[in-house]
Amino acid sequence: MFTDTHCHLADPALRCRLPDIFAQAQQSGITGMIVPTAEPNDWAHLSDLLCQSMIRAGAIGIHPWFVQTESAGCLADLAQYLQHNPRLWLGEIGLDFYDKSQPETQSSLQIQLFEAQLDLAQQHQRPIILHNLKATAAIVRSLQRTQFTQGGIAHAFSGSMEEAKLLLRHGFKIGIGTLLLNPHAKKVRQLTSQLALSDILLETDSPFGIKNQINTPANLLAIAQQVAQIRALALPDLAQQCEQNLQTLLPCP
């Protein structure tokens, strides 16, 4: 019924028990998954995961946390993966300016690598899965500089409606995740009530996103229930809308 649009199944915490994870997800009405990666060490595992029937797409990329450990050679490897597999997106990529004390050189490195990956995504006509922490303005500038038009998913979005509109104009859907399960997360609850239903996708960010426990795609049901309650929708109607939203990003069969 639902697709978890962001679950790190290549992470060691999940990779070792995939049959159980798939079974639990199906029991909770989760019928599809999109699997992003964060660094090259994960890419080979993703190739194996794409053989699983529940995996609708994968994403490869270099997360902003890893910009200093990766070299330009990784970009050539990325291009090779994209060229040979049309089910791959770019992700999880983006900018992370949460740490205000990080040196300007680090921010510049992030921007340089992000824009190089945007160029690859544009060249191969692939959506991206966007990591954005305190960096919306810089991300929009990068999207404009690279003339990126492929859209994607703004992962675990926690910004304002005004910031969301900036990304929506560039073809992004807004990823709603486990933050919605926090009753004190008023900002994301308000955003969920204000967004057009055609702009929403759901995600868990497994195995992350839930304090002191390993998150799994089965928990997407709880997120969907919260969205349905906030929007006064039946779950099947929400599932149908989310599927329509996702289809705008997936390649035609």
From TrEMBL:
This is Uncharacterized deoxyribonuclease YjjV. Its EC number is 3.1.21.-. Keywords: Hydrolase, Metal-binding. It is an enzyme of class 3 (hydrolase). The gene is yjjV. A divalent metal cation 2 binds at H131, H155. Pfam families: TatD_DNase. GO terms for cellular component: cytosol. It comes from the Bacteria. The lineage of its organism: Bacteria, Pseudomonadati, Pseudomonadota, Betaproteobacteria, Neisseriales. It comes from Kingella kingae. A divalent metal cation 1 binds at H6, H8, E92, D205.
